[in-house]
């Protein structure tokens, strides 16, 4: 997924444009400089292509003000992270010296730049864009973020500058595994152990890995791409600006992965941030494995692993389908089982069930337990078919989707899992109305 940063000097309308593209009011919009002090990101889509947009504080290249200097650093981080930069200028104010300085900074980035002239609210004002040719960074596109004018032409140009998908067919065949979790739980150490070499920097300083790093490997279980991601801390702990961009990259890594491995430090247990990040993978119905690392540091008896597993099952109750593995990346204990388990989960993630067998199972499930009344209506299932894999996706044709009770949907999902072994993978269920 491409990343697009909206940059420019203060008060040119970046947050207004961001909110318009995001489809909801996320950034604070106020008519004075310095209101957006942090970067905010959201997903959006144009011409069938999803991408992430980042709102940034205004750039004041020569300012000594502490807050403005920090905003400038954050904008520079956004520029480094982005694939495409939307450089926003003010069509009412006209070209300024600060615009020239920002343009000079952007030219040095060697990134694709789309020059956008905002606040062109009337057709008669469109000629205001021509003076911005003096910046020498391409054809200016006139828009009004507040009124939503000209956004289509602007987005056409943005999407046209997205980098080509560099994956080869061979890479596309690889099973993509994203290592996710808090800093310093051993993600890089595990990857290095699997690869048998010091591929990633390993340090006990949290935040050593600041971007998603890909490592391909092939063994008897198949071809894999291991994606090491930066650890995610609670927001109050995020001090360096660059770490906020690590969040964006981690979410993007989850989106392109087939399997997400949540790594937990056995000595610390599961934290709220673990729940949030693996919850994102769960919402996308990814394959999920929970790995407890540093198991060698735990004093054990014959019930330690069972008790630890039961505790995790309680705290991560929404991951009832995910397998658990206890390892030590340092000593190598059970690390050889990681890719074997990942291949097993991937097979389930990519599993297809024949329509006849599927409908027999659901028919038997309905005979054992009918749908409960919801708002005085009872849902009837006429037919079920699997329409996709990765994740397994099932469409239920019913008389009234609004009569579906969440507990009955969970019951149907459990029936699918019990009969077809979908261990480790999310399942997507779609209910559509169809006349009897």
From TrEMBL:
Domain EngA-type G: residue ranges = 2-166, 175-350
Biological processes, Gene Ontology terms: ribosome biogenesis
Which key words tag this protein in UniProt?
A: GTP-binding, Nucleotide-binding, Repeat, Ribosome biogenesis
Name of a matching Pfam family:
KH_dom-like
Q: Recall the GO molecular function terms of this protein's record.
A: GTP binding; ribosome binding
Q: Which domain of life is it from?
A: Bacteria
Which residues take part in binding GTP 1? 8-15, 55-59, 118-121
**Where would one find the signal peptide in this protein?**
none
Instruction: Tell me yes or no: is Repeat among this UniProt entry's keywords.
Output: yes
Q: Quote the record's binding site residues for GTP 2.
A: 181-188, 228-232, 293-296
The record ties this protein, via PANTHER family, to: GTPASE DER
The UniProt subunit note reads as follows: Associates with the 50S ribosomal subunit.
List the HAMAP family hit by this protein, alphabetically.
GTPase_Der
Q: Which family, according to the similarity comment? A: Belongs to the TRAFAC class TrmE-Era-EngA-EngB-Septin-like GTPase superfamily. EngA (Der) GTPase family.
Free-text function comment from the UniProt entry: GTPase that plays an essential role in the late steps of ribosome biogenesis.
* Stated name of the protein: GTPase Der
Per the UniProt record, the lineage of the source organism begins with:
Bacteria, Bacillati, Bacillota, Clostridia, Eubacteriales
Q: Which gene encodes it?
A: der
């Amino acid at each position: 997924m491409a990343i697009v940063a909206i940059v420019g000097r203060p008060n040119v309308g970046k947050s207004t444009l961001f909110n318009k593209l995001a489809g909801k009011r996320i950034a604070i919009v106020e008519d004075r400089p310095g209101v957006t002090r942090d970067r905010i990101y959201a997903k959006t889509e144009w011409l069938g292509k999803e991408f992430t947009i980042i709102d940034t504080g205004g750039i004041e290249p020569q300012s000594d003000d502490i807050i403005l200097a920090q905003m400038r650093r954050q904008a520079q981080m956004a520029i480094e992270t982005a694939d495409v930069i939307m450089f926003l200028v003010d069509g009412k104010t006209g070209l300024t010296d600060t615009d020239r300085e920002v343009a000079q900074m952007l030219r040095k980035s060697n990134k694709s730049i789309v020059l956008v002239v905002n606040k062109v609210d009337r057709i008669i004002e469109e000629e205001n864009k021509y003076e911005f040719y003096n910046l020498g960074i391409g054809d200016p596109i006139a828009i009004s973020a507040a009124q939503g004018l000209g956004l289509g032409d602007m987005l056409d140009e943005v999407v046209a500058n997205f980098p080509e998908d560099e994956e080869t067919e061979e890479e596309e065949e690889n099973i993509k595994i994203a290592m996710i979790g808090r800093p310093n739980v051993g993600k890089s150490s595990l990857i290095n152990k699997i690869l048998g070499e010091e591929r990633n920097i390993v340090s006990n300083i949290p935040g050593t890995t600041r971007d998603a790093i890909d490592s391909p490997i092939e063994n008897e279980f198949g071809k894999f791409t291991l994606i090491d991601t930066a650890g995610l801390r609670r927001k109050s702990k995020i001090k360096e600006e660059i770490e906020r961009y690590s969040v964006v990259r981690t979410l993007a890594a989850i989106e392109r992965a087939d399997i997400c491995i949540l790594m937990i430090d056995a000595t610390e247990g599961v934290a709220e941030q673990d729940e949030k990040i693996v919850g994102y993978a769960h919402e996308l119905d990814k394959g999920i494995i929970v790995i407890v690392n540093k198991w060698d540091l735990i004093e054990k008896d014959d019930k330690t692993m069972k008790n630890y597993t039961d505790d995790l099952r309680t705290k991560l109750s929404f991951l009832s389908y995910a397998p658990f593995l206890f390892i030590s990346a340092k000593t190598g204990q059970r690390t050889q089982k990681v890719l074997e388990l990942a291949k097993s989960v991937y097979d389930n993630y990519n599993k297809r069930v024949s329509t006849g067998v599927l409908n027999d199972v659901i028919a038997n499930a309905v005979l054992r337990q009918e749908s409960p009344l919801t708002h005085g209506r009872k849902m009837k299932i006429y037919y079920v078919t699997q329409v996709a894999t990765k994740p397994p996706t099932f469409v239920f044709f019913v008389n009234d989707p609004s009569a579906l009770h969440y507990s009955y949907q969970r019951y149907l999902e459990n029936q699918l899992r019990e009969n077809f072994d979908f261990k480790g993978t999310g399942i997507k269920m779609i209910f559509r109305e169809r006349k009897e």
